[in-house]
Write a structure and sequence with these properties.
Blueprint lengths: L9 H6 L3 H5 L6 E4 L6 H14 L2 E4 L8 H8 L3 E5 H9 L13 E5 L3 H11 L3 E6 L8 E3 L3
Parallel strand pairs: 1-2, 1-3, 3-4, 4-5
Antiparallel strand pairs: 5-6
Helix pairs in contact: 5-6
GO molecular function: long-chain fatty acid-CoA ligase activity
InterPro entries: AMP-dep_synth/lig_dom, ANL_N_sf
Keywords: Ligase, Membrane, Transmembrane, Transmembrane helix
Length: 147
């Protein structure tokens, strides 16, 4: 939907510096980010999160399911930040050779349906998925560390 204004405190912004560290990423990672930067998930968790751990951030202007795996291979992507529907788009693409030949080890985001989660891992390999949920305006964030 359209962007909406949300009041985000300085403390919450600073806390976003440790987002990727909390989900198991490090400075050696390359993070693929195709989320809008006007959204907290794209700007604060994505870009600021990369700054916080010193990781490389691959910014895409828009998400392309048909080019995703080629982009991941070309850029050496190891972490993918998603909104649930992006994973569904990937699973719904026609199968292509080499879908399991990639360096992606971690997918982190929110809104991933259980059936898509299973299909994603079966089709694309043993990618660790960490589901998170934390409203921009709220004061609590949830992490599904156990999968």
């Amino acid at each position: 939907g359209l962007p909406k204004a949300a009041r985000v405190s300085h403390l919450k912004s600073v806390m976003c510096l440790s987002f990727y560290e909390l989900v198991g990423a490090s400075s050696r990672d390359v993070v693929y980010l195709a989320l809008p930067l006007y959204h907290m998930a794209g700007s604060l968790l994505g870009v600021v999160g990369c700054l916080g751990i010193g990781a490389t951030c691959v910014l895409k202007e828009k998400f392309s399911a048909s080019h995703f795996w080629d982009d991941c291979r070309a850029e050496g992507v190891t972490v993918f930040q998603y909104i649930g529907e992006l994973c569904r788009y990937l699973v719904n693409q026609p199968q292509r050779p080499g879908e399991r030949q990639h360096g992606l080890r971690l997918a982190v985001g929110s809104g991933l349906r259980p059936d898509v989660w299973q299909s994603f891992q079966q089709r694309f390999g043993p990618v660790r998925i960490v589901e998170t949920y934390g409203m921009s305006e709220g004061n609590v964030t949830l992490f599904n560390y156990t999968g």
